[in-house]
Amino acid sequence: MIFLTMPVGMLQVNCYILGCERTKQAIVVDPGDKPGAILGALRRHDLTLTAILGTHAHFDHLLACRPLQEATGAPFHLHPADRPLVAAMQRTCMAWLGYDPGEPPSVDRDITPGERLEFGDISLEARHTPGHSPGGVTFVDHANRLALTGDALFAGSIGRTDFPGSDHATLLRSIRGKILSLPDDYAVHSGHGPATTVGSERRNNPFLDEEW
Question: Which of 142, 157, 171, 188 is the most exposed place for a label (fewest CB within 10 A)?
């Protein structure tokens, strides 16, 4: 599998490109900005974008989503509980970053917790991990032993829970039940910052010592 990490935008969101080496099908997870750079990376690896996945719908993770849809026709997949955040993208971005990002993307397909998303030889299990947002999802690739956790779990930290729709206890339950239930050697690729492993976070993440 081709696996690329691209920190993009003012908030340095980790955008991930996963490509099937056999079929050249690709998916983009959390296209936070820089659509031209994302499209350039796809071209360099001779990949065709077949889907865009959102771990959640905070605006900083989706600013390049609509341009990618328009350039490629790829459908955008999102958990339905985060649709209201998509509708609020323009207003929220203007409040945080001071500019209008334009029309939000269209959500083409709802993600169902527990489903397998298949793209060529890539298979991702969708695990609902709410708490940072109501529709937060972690995508697990069991063949390559990795999890894309969005803003649920970071190296040494967890997602913020002071936003509308966030809940601290819910996030801790999500992390313990849906991420820490994976084997220790699974890589954790978060929405911001460096990669880590399930085992490292289980042992060392101070936020996970809290009662829940």
Answer: 142
Domains and CATH numbers, the chain: 2-209 (3.60.15.10)
Question: How do residues 93-135 score in pLDDT, each as one tens digit?
Answer: 888 888 888 889 999 999 999 999 999 999 999 999 999 999 9
Contacts 24+ apart (CB under 8 A), 156-164: 156/196, 156/201, 156/204, 156/205, 156/206, 157/193, 157/205, 157/207, 158/132, 158/205, 158/207, 158/208, 159/131, 159/132, 159/191, 160/132, 161/131, 161/132, 163/58, 163/132, 163/133
Q: What residues are paired with 77 via a beta bridge?
A: 53, 109
Q: Residue 122 burial (CB < 10 Å; 0-12/13-18/19+)?
A: buried
Q: What's the CA gap between 49 and 65, in Å, rounded?
A: 12
Cross-strand partners of 118: 123
pLDDT in tens, 177-194: 999 999 999 999 999 999
User: What is the pTM assigned to this prediction?
Assistant: 0.95
Average pLDDT over all residues of the chain? 95
Q: Are 78 and 104 in contact (CB under 8 A)?
A: no
